[in-house]
Known about the structure:
By secondary structure, the protein is α+β, with helices and mostly antiparallel strands. It has one helix and nine strands. It has two domains: 1-35; 37-156, Immunoglobulins (Immunoglobulin-like, Sandwich). Strands 1-9-8-5-6-7-4-3-2 form a nine-stranded mixed β-sheet, with no helix packed on it. The chain is elongated. It starts with a helix and ends with a strand. The mean pLDDT is 85.
Amino acid sequence: MIDxxxxxxxxxxxxxxxxxxxxxxxxxxxxxxxxxxxxxxxxATDCDLHSSTCTVTIPDRGExxxxxxxxxxPVLEKLSINVxxxxxxxxxxxxxxxxxxxxxxxxxxxxxxxxxxxYHGDGMLPVCIRNRMEWRANVMIHTGEGIIVAPFSLATxxx
Length: 159
């Protein structure tokens, strides 16, 4: 016969395991929610980041503007990255630059909040063996619901 103390210990262990499983499930769900892409804007192709700030609209959500300096945008030099948002509940902003048609690795830059809806960071675009390199600058707006992606096109030429 099993005594009551051993039964109580077994129930306590089982309850502890169930609580641990529930906690892991809740944490996993929260992490997925924070990293899931919930909206992606159309790629901004009608604007030239070499000469101006470019803006994309996320339907029913808001706007994201990207500005790069110096202009024209250089390769292998410090690049000042500025993002402005409008109408979005922003928890954080990151930007990554991906090569289009050629894998160049991913350079993800976390921007710092510098004022009302303004974010800033520094980065650098690598040089490519091609004379002309196409890039996709993905501005990722982290919200409480998930990530909103605002993509921008950019072509660089070595000097």
